[in-house]
Automatic annotation (TrEMBL):
Bias type Polar residues, positions: 389-400, 408-417
Residue span(s) of domain Protein kinase: 37-302
Species per Swiss-Prot/TrEMBL record: Clavelina lepadiformis (Light-bulb sea squirt)
Domain of life: Eukaryota
Residues covered by region (Disordered): 1-30, 377-427
Gene3D superfamilies the record matches: Phosphorylase Kinase, domain 1, Transferase(Phosphotransferase) domain 1
Record-given protein name: Protein kinase domain-containing protein
Compositional bias (Basic and acidic residues): 1-12
Length: 445
């Protein structure tokens, strides 16, 4: 009898667990984001006290509800303007290789007026981290270290160049293989951006860090000024690039800093001399000697002359709105003449025919380009929007909920999304100007 009663009880407890996780704990002031009773991994982001799964009621997708708790209101007030400016900047970020930062607001607790919460909503990455992927695929080192390694480096550097190009520059400050996520199609996204304004309010910032070998010497040196610059991210990227190139995870830091000799020993294990020099540049001891993300993209080990196929794909994706809808369909429906000679050689019988070209999945390739897997790193990279100054709203002066999305709007007054459509046809008409003094029309010739 007890064996028969067992399964229903297990199902019942599982059902109760699912109900607990779907329970709504809180909602945003605008009612769009619903915080659920299910915590997600903070992924070692210093300064973030807790993170929950949430539902975007407008888009019908899962997001992450992050909370930063300031135990003393005066601690928040001392850097209030800086925090708002940084988060306004973060909400304006739009890059294929950066986890999307949707919106933030500031909640002053009525029950505990001395405490202040900063809540921000970010994209939920259900895929695993790059670290886990590397551990699973360490046996295919030879393939991974050539094609995939370069592709991953280009994506990460493209994202860092974008962040560092913001005004003021946004320093990630927590770049590790655990905070880089890989999707099933090979797209990398860097997440867990922890702004200085948040990190600085954590007294045990250095003590809670794991994998200290990712952090530049100026970050862990107690004698340094503690000034965080983009060069910090370049050092962290160098360690990530080293881990991505190694056949196994040779760099394992257990809350202790690996020595320079340990890192140099790992670098000498690489067969490619250019790869070694590339990583040594990134982890130079002096921040001034480390190249910028843009300069690293032009390094010989990563630089490439883009193929005409890739350039055409980017042009198609960028201008898809103004191209005929049947443009792609007509290409795919076009019958191929297998006997058509595309190129001739001096060697008889060695002509290249259309039948010699493999099947090309144009839809998948265009989708990969659209998602950011193949950025055009040899040209000028996309520039972030300029930071906008925002006036103080009535809710800010009264100490109520504050919500922002790049311009710090309140729940009751949200700005319209920016116009992204392109004008492909326009008409205008004109009238003669009326002379105010004489009261008659004047035609200009």
């Amino acid at each position: 009898m007890s064996e028969k009663d067992g399964p229903p009880k297990a199902e019942e407890s599982e059902h109760e667990s699912e109900e607990d996780e779907s329970e709504i704990l809180e909602e945003s002031p605008c009612g769009r984001w619903l915080k659920r009773n299910e915590e997600v991994s903070q992924r070692n982001v210093p300064g973030i006290d807790c993170a929950y799964l949430a539902m975007d009621s407008e888009e019908g997708m899962e997001v992450v509800w992050n909370e930063v708790q300031f135990s003393e209101r005066k601690s928040y007030k001392a850097q209030e303007d800086k925090i708002k400016a940084v988060f306004d900047n973060l909400t304006s970020i739009d890059h294929a290789n950066i986890v999307k930062f949707h919106r933030y607001w500031i909640d002053s607790s009525k029950k505990e007026p001395q405490k202040t919460r900063v809540i921000f909503i970010t994209e939920y990455m259900s895929s695993g981290s790059l670290k886990k992927f590397l551990n699973k695929t360490k046996e295919i080192h030879k393939y991974k270290s050539t094609k995939s390694w370069k592709r991953w480096c280009r994506q990460i550097l493209s994202a860092l160049s974008y962040l560092h190009g913001c005004h003021p520059s946004i320093v990630h400050g927590n770049l590790t293989c655990d905070t880089i996520f890989i999707q099933h199609n090979g797209l990398l996204k860097i997440g867990s951006v922890a702004p200085d304004a948040i990190r600085n309010h954590v007294k045990t910032y250095l003590e809670i860090h794991k994998n200290l070998h990712y952090f530049a010497p100026e970050c862990t040196d107690t004698q340094s000024s503690g000034n965080i610059t983009p060069a910090v991210d370049i050092y962290s990227f160098g360690i990530c690039a080293l881990e991505m190139a190694l056949p196994k995870t040779h760099l394992v830091g257990d809350n202790k800093r690996l020595t320079t000799e340990d890192i140099e020993r790992a670098i000498t294990m690489l067969d490619d001399t250019q790869q070694q020099n590339f990583i040594r540049l990134c982890i130079s001891k002096s921040p001034a000697e480390r190249p910028s993300a843009r300069e690293l993209l032009l390094h010989p080990v990563l630089f490439e002359v883009h193929s005409l196929k890739l350039l055409s794909a980017h042009a198609f994706v960028k201008n898809q709105e103004i191209l005929p809808e049947t443009q792609l369909d007509s290409y795919k429906s076009k019958e191929k003449n297998k006997d058509l000679i595309l190129a001739t050689t001096r060697v008889p019988g060695k002509d290249m025919k259309e039948a010699d070209i493999g099947i090309f999945d144009v839809d998948k390739f265009l989708e990969d380009v659209r998602n950011g897997i193949y950025p055009l790193t040899s040209f000028a990279l996309p520039k972030p929007p300029k930071a906008q100054t925002r006036p103080q709203s009535p809710s800010e002066s009264s100490g109520q909920h504050e919500i922002g999305q790049g311009t710090g709007q309140t729940p009751s007054t949200q700005n319209d999304p920016p116009e992204t459509r392109k004008i492909i046809h326009a008409q205008c008409c004109y009238l003669d100007r009326e002379d105010g003094a004489e009261g008659h029309h004047v035609r200009k010739t």
